Amino acid sequence: QVGDGAGTPTKIGVAECTSILSLFATGDASIDAAKRNGKITKVHHVDWQVENILGIIGKYKVIVYGE
User: Fold this and answer.
1) CA 8 to CA 30: how far, in whole Å?
2) Euclidean distance between CA atoms 25 and 28, whole angstroms
């Protein structure tokens, strides 16, 4: 948990997926999945991260901050 209750987010939810050769993917990196994982009902803001290894493996992460 983060925040001080004064309009700042108090929960964090994360969702991830991995892609191989842009043909096969596993996981769910949607905002809805991150909200569910963090038990968030009100979204404050969303961040994302991408890691790509030689165009072969891609890792995607969505981070939702909220209440």
Assistant:
1) 22
2) 9
| pTM over 0.90, yes/no | no
3-state secondary structure (DSSP) of residue 66: strand
Which amino acid appears at position 6 of this protein?
A: A
Pairing of strands 43-53, 24-27: unpaired
Contact residues for 24 (Cβ-Cβ < 8 A; gap 6+): none
Specify the 3-state DSSP secondary structure of 67.
coil
SS3 string of 1-64? CCCCCCCCCCEEEEEEEEEECCCEEEECCCHHHHHHHHCCCCEEEEEEEEEEECCCEEEEEEEE
Query: What is the tens place of the pLDDT at every residue in 4-57?
Result: 555 678 899 999 999 999 899 999 999 999 999 999 999 999 999 999 999 899
